[in-house]
Amino acid sequence: MLITNNWLRDLIEVDLSPEETASALTRVGLAVEGTHTFGDDQVFDIDLTSNRPDCLSHLGVARELGVIANRALKTSLIATNNGLPDVPIPTLLEVDIVKISDPELCNRFTARIIRNVKIRPSPDWLVKRLAAIGERSINNVADITNYVMHELGQPMHSFDLDKLSGNRIVVRRARHGEMITTLDEAEHKLDDAMLLICDAEKPVAIGGIMGGLDSSITEDTVNVLLEVAYFKRETIRQTSRKLGLHTEASYRFERGVDIENLVRASDRTTALICELAGGEAEEFIDIYPTVFKPKDIESGDISYAVKRLTGLDVATAECIRILNALGIKRKYEVSDLKSQAVEAEIDSSISDSKSQMFVTPTWRHDLAIEEDLVEEVARHAGYENIAEKLPPAFGAGEYQPNEMRKIRLRQTLTDAGFDEAISYSFIDTKFDEMFQSIPEILDETTDEKYVTLKDSVIEGSLRMRPTLLPGLLDAVKTNFNHKRRDVAMFEIGKAFAALAGESGLPNERELFALVLTGSEIYQDRAMPGREFDFYDAKGAIEAAFDAADISNIEFSAVEIVHLRKGQSASISVNGKKVGYIGRLNDEITTSYKFKQPVYLAEVDLQTMLAVNPTPIVYRPLPKYPSIVRDISFVAKRTLTFDEIRAAVIEQNAELCQGVEFVDEYEGKGMEPDERSITIRLEYRSSERTLIEDEVAELHQSIVNALEGSLNIKQR
After folding, report:
1. Are residue 443 and residue 507 in the same domain, yes or no?
2. Which of 156, 569, 643, 702 has its CA 20 to 30 A from that of 456?
3. What is the CATH number of the domain that holds 168?
4. How many CB atoms lie under 10 A from the CB of residue 395?
């Protein structure tokens, strides 16, 4: 966002040099990344977070400067009306010139008719001011709308009134497949989720994004219809992305504009058009069916809240000054004899012992709770003044429950060559149906199963992650881009879903995930070892949970959305399914442009750690030798070693001390649906040395039982 020093001085008088202004803005969170000279002016390049659309204008930045310097804005330059007649606000959705067919997507719409304008080049001062912020001059009317947008933060559009069929405006959803040619001479195909500004016959603009070519202002324009409106943020964001059409207007509408700023912006623009283009202001229409209600935030002593949460010692009067200057007004509630709440404005001299209510301004969509108010005070009191002191806490320094188990889990994986990753908790909506979530995280019976952000911290990342996998795969992609093909990483982090409990808050679970791809790396060897496979990932899971004292882990073949069929399994603990493991499927592998197999696992760590640790049982070392027998069975390919092991355990043979997998064989001599599975049985007595005959008899009885119960035969 480019802001000029001279333009700011038109809105507020402060005794700060450009360098001091840049430093002061950076100090309160409006990071000035650089400055450059433009003629006799200094231009600030400000990096804004997406939750501060109020500062996407010179007015917003001037407001912040006013708080810093304790100066008031020059409201005479940006006052509502500007000498134009007052017009009452109708609650209807249709008047003679404007009709809103979808008030849910267009919450307010104003239209001003200006006649007898003369389209010509803009005066030098306007051309230079726009050039300073990187805007090229078009003509006087178009330049004025751009100028006011950068001054007040409100996008708008001017139509040639005589080109509008029926001389009217209809705000409606697009019809599926409807076409429009925009000002950039590009043709766009629309769908019914998009909002259009139309005349009596055809579309003339894509609402909140760009005007149409057919109704644009030209040298022949005489009469202008000025549109200043408020559109639903989510609709503008969705339409802009679908069409690949990103404009200064859509950038502001996506983040949120001030719905109470429309009339002021319209009046300011109209006054300038009358002054610079010789226009004559006539009819003004303001359709505002549902008046916006500012949010109330309850707080006690705001000074105490600031002290409690930040450690900053800011007097109550200073807290109120900062909040009032930012537009956050204070009121309090008392009860009359009828126990009805009475609201009244109060100043900082009122006692702060009562519960207070603060009213948020219409240009701040990011304020909702007391902590937000504290943040505003802390910004201007100075983050640098927060002392380096730990907050008081009971049990400080103690390990939390299960913390040691997680430490052992991390250490085991680190020793095995894994790196721990930390990913953002915000992901793109494109991942919504790409990955299958672990059990009991999402409520699949509702469409509102994800936690969606209104103001994304990262551009495009609107979801709170329900899975850790997108972050890990992005890390793998980054490693591949840096020519590192052998990657082993894990992450422990929170996942979120809109499944609300009694508290009404989102469901929040701690998950564990790992990713494995490439080959083994050996110390002091240039060449890598063998390639990783499914069993390396499975072994890492088993080793990690063994270190965390989690036993009774079972793997069962199952089909998972994001994993390759035949190379995926569910993970269960004590019979409860807690996650999945397998190879990333071909579709997702292709979308990431991976050219080698990638193995993933994700489990509900919170559920697994809720299982009591396996007790440690000490036994004396065996005194007597064991006898080992290997045996191969011909079985159907669907039979697993787990089923064979379970059948052996069912025999409850006291002398049979162990069952292990040895090998499998498929190929010559086997039917297409058969394979040979070799297992190892270990026999031992804790009281005596076993003799061959008794082992042979017991061994044969186990073999006979397996052949009978599993329908297999000894090879």
Report:
1. yes
2. 156
3. 3.50.40.10
4. 7
Residues 6+ apart with CB under 8 A from 10: 58, 74, 77
pLDDT at 501: 54
pTM (whole model) above 0.70: no
569 shares its domain with 662: no
| Cβ-based neighbour number of residue 558 at 10 Å | 15
- Distance separating alpha carbons of residues 187 and 215, to the nearest angstrom: 15
Mean per-residue pLDDT of the chain = 87
**Of 609, 638, 654, which residue constitutes the final position of a domain?**
609
Residues 454, 307 share a domain: no
How far apart CA 304 and CA 345 sit, in angstroms, is: 21
Residue 270: enclosing H or E segment and its boundaries? helix 262-276
Do 579 and 643 share a domain, yes or no?
no
Considering the domain architecture, whether residues 200 and 305 belong to the same structural domain is answered as no
Q: Which residues contact 40 (CB under 8 A, 6 or more apart)?
A: 6
Residue where the block lists tokens 């990187």: 134
Q: What is the tens place of the pLDDT at every residue in 24-42?
A: 999 999 999 999 999 999 9
Residues 274 and 374 in one domain: no
| Edge-to-edge order in the sheet of strand 106-115 | 157-160, 224-231, 106-115, 280-287
Residue where one domain finishes, among candidates 609, 642, 672:
609
pLDDT digits (tens, 9 = 90+) for 206-232: 999 999 999 999 999 999 999 999 999
**46-80 pLDDT tens trace:** 999 888 999 999 999 999 999 999 999 886 655 55
Residue 441, by phi and psi: left (phi above 0), alpha (psi -120 to 50) or beta? alpha
Angle ∠(250,255,258) on CA atoms, nearest 5: 95
How far lies 215's CA from each of 643, 645, 689, in Å? 74, 78, 100
Provide the edge-to-edge strand list for the sheet that holds 296-299: 296-299, 356-359, 329-335, 341-345
Domain residues for 351?
Answer: 296-383
Contact 662, 682 (CB under 8 A): no
Q: How many domains does the chain have?
A: 5
Q: What torsion, rounded to 10 degrees, do the Cα atoms 379, 385, 389, 394 define?
A: -40
Give the other-Cβ count within 10 Å of 390's Cβ.
9
* Digit-coded pLDDT (tens) for 254-273: 999 999 999 999 999 999 99
Six-digit token string for 156 = 């708008």
In this structure, are 480 and 524 located in the same domain? yes
CATH code of residue 548: 3.30.930.10
Spatial distance between the Cα atoms of 401 and 393, rounded to a whole number of angstroms: 16
